[in-house]
C-alpha cells in the first residue's frame, strides 16, 4: 500500500525508490509502535517527508535542515482556530522521541542520502557476461 501511496513505479529496478519505500515504511511502523493517533501519525509522516524534501529538492545542508526541522516542530499543532484546546500535536516526550528517530534514521546517514539524490551515477554497462 505504501508503494502505491508514494507512486513508486520502478521499485524493482530503482535503488532510490526501494530506499524511499524503506524510509517511509520504517517511519510508519515506528510511529504505529509509538501508538500515535491518526492525526499524530499524519503529522509525523509530514515531518519525515519535510526533512527528506529539504534534502532532495531544496539541497539543504544538514545544519539548515536541522534548523528547518526545529522550526517545523515548534509550529506543529498550532492552529488558527482558538476553539481548539489542544495546541500541541505531540507531547514533549513524543517530540524528543521523534527527534531521536530522525537523527538515527536520516541525519546520521545524511551523506548517503545526499549521494542518493544528488550524486552522479555512471550508466550501467550491460554485456553478455
UniProtKB/TrEMBL annotation:
**What sections of the protein cross the membrane?**
none
The stretch of residues making up the signal peptide is none
Q: Which InterPro entries does the record cross-reference, listed alphabetically?
A: CLAMP
Pfam families of this UniProt entry? CLAMP
Give the protein name, as stated in the record: CBCO1 protein
Q: What is the organism field in this record?
A: Leptocoma aspasia
